[in-house]
Specification:
Helices cover 84% and strands 0% of the residues. The chain contains three helices and no strands. Helix 1 packs across helix 2. The radius of gyration is 20 Å and the shape is rod-shaped.
């Protein structure tokens, strides 16, 4: 707890809060990224589009 108080005194409250939130929310962001990737595959298959073709479209490539 002492370290947190030192950090807040030295770097400011907003920076400490931003760092704390980044550490706490990183696993949630990774889970969301996995879910979005899975949904991309599902939607591409339901639409009759090959996943690789859909990935190329998203990346700006041509197929």
């Amino acid at each position: 707890m002492e370290e947190v108080v030192k950090l807040a005194a030295n770097y400011g409250f907003p920076m400490v809060v931003a760092g704390y939130l980044l550490v706490r929310l990183e696993p949630v962001i990774r889970d969301l990224q996995k879910s979005i990737s899975l949904l991309t595959v599902v939607v591409a298959r339901q639409g009759g589009v090959d996943y690789e073709d859909a990935r190329m479209l998203v990346e700006g490539g041509k197929f």
